[in-house]
Design brief:
Elements (H helix, E strand, L loop, with lengths): L1 H8 L1 H8 L7 H14 L3 E5 L7 H4 L5 E6 L2 H11 L7 E4 L13 E6 L9 H14 E13 L3 H4 L8 H17 L1 H4 L7 E6 L6 E6 L1 H10 L2 E8 L18 E8 L2
Parallel strand pairs: 1-2, 1-4, 2-3, 4-5, 5-7
Antiparallel strand pairs: 5-9, 6-7, 8-9
Helix pairs in contact: 2-5
């Protein structure tokens, strides 16, 4: 999955993220409202901060704000953008797989927004979860999103376009996408998680998809509990009976460190 780092270090990709308007995704808004009362007491670690889409919503609401990313271009963009507005905010080039520069129990709130966690392999994800748990304070909050394996049948399906040329192009793109992911497609019905070769950035992105039930089990196994799941489409918390039918492209998870 090292090509993912290459993609996020590309200056055009950094520019793309820097141009994002300051807005939160629906579930992020719901979660922010839920944790608003305790935010000001917390030191926050914003992992995979990118060009700082979430910074504007949190930097002046928390006790201390640190944004990290494994792409130097991204952290540079944050420093340039927020150096004057949030002079106390810290931006560092750090990989989630090695948070050794931060002491145990350092952060009351850890965020890894917009599926950043899906850029590493399954084994590395377990390492990342262990690192996140270590730097998370006692009863600290961890929030992240992850691609939903249950959306993949739609993702690989035919997408109708009214414009005939666009429709033909989309059929051609779908054929390439299927050819690159033949092995994974066969695994959908039984797999808990798969890694897909995404057709954005010329197949440079390899993306992890997981079933919500498997994600919850993974969190519990790695020392997190009180897991809540939020729909990307509605922003609302899903009930347990809704997990299996959820086909949102990604879901948000809110949980706390178990001690
Ligand atoms: C989809 S972008 C989201 C950026 C930003 N959070 C936003 O919402 O606009 C994912 C980000 O995660 C970062 N990322 C991916 N894997 C990472 C890792 N192992 N350690 C730190 N950052 C990582 C990427 O460089 C990228 O900036």
């Amino acid at each position: 999955m090292e090509t993912n780092k290459k993609v996020y270090s590309d200056s055009q990709v950094v520019k793309h993220y820097a141009a994002y308007s300051a807005s939160l995704q629906r579930p992020e808004r719901t979660i922010m409202n839920l944790i608003q009362p305790v935010l000001q007491e917390m030191r926050m670690l914003d992992i995979g901060v990118g060009a700082g889409r979430t910074t504007v919503f949190f930097a002046d609401k928390v006790k201390e704000y640190t944004g990290i990313d494994f792409s130097e271009g991204m952290t540079r963009a944050c420093k340039e953008k927020f150096g004057n507005t949030y002079p106390a905010a810290v931006f560092e080039t750090v990989d989630v797989r090695d948070l050794s520069r931060y002491a145990d129990n350092s952060f009351g709130f850890v965020l890894f927004s917009f599926n950043g966690l899906d850029n590493i392999s399954h084994e590395e994800r377990i390492v990342a979860l262990s690192e996140i748990r270590r730097v998370c304070a006692e009863k600290g909050i961890f929030c992240f999103s992850s691609h939903n394996l249950q959306c993949l049948p739609d993702f690989f399906g035919i997408r109708f376009r009214w414009h005939p040329v666009r429709f033909l192009k989309s059929l051609f793109a779908r054929r390439r996408l299927i050819a690159r992911n033949k092995e994974q497609i066969g695994k959908f019905p039984e797999a808990d998680h798969v890694t897909i070769f995404d057709d954005v950035y010329d197949f440079g992105l390899h993306t992890y998809y997981i079933r919500p039930s498997a994600q919850i089990a993974q969190l519990k196994k790695n020392g997190f509990g009180e897991v809540k799941v939020f729909s990307l489409n509605t922003g609302e918390e899903l009930r347990e009976q809704q997990y299996e039918a959820a086909t949102d492209s990604w879901l948000y998870y809110l949980c706390s460190k178990l001690t």
